[in-house]
Amino acid sequence: MMTVIYYYLVMSVLTAIAFFVDKRLAILDMRRIPEKWLHCLELLGGWAGALLASELFKHKRQKQSYMIVLYGISLLHVLLMTMYFFAK
């Protein structure tokens, strides 16, 4: 069980870093991290870091299409974690 928690923690930190880098690239008007790669990080377990980073860095919050996908990924992971922990 601790392995799962550590995995989600590491993925969340990596995703938050990616959001930070993407925000800085946007400010500098440089080439950005594609949204599909940010969503891949979220799908791989970084959804909590993405939610936190979007608020903390005020990044991607206004883009409704992006946030809908992020909320969907988050809901999926919450459901999967609930099933995992209650199945034991």
Tell me what the structure shows:
It is a single chain. It contains 3 helices and no strands. The protein has one domain. The mean pLDDT is 94. The protein is 81% helix and 0% strand. The chain is mainly α.
Features:
elongated, mainly alpha, 88 residues
Category from helices, strands and their pairing: mainly alpha
Report the end-to-end length measured between terminal Cα atoms.
10 Å
Q: Supply the number of helical segments.
A: 3
Overall mean confidence score, pLDDT: 94
**What characterizes the major β-sheet?**
none
Strand content: under 5%
The low-confidence runs, each spanning 5 or more residues with pLDDT under 50, are: none
Please provide the ordered H/E string of secondary-structure elements: HHH
Proportion of residues in helical segments:
over 70%
Looking at how many chains there are and whether they match, the oligomeric state comes to single chain
Number of domains: 1
Short summary of the structure?
The protein has about 90 residues and is mainly α. The chain is about 80% helix and about 0% strand.
Question: What secondary-structure arrangement, pairings included, does this model have?
Answer:
Layout: H1 2-27, H2 35-56, H3 64-86
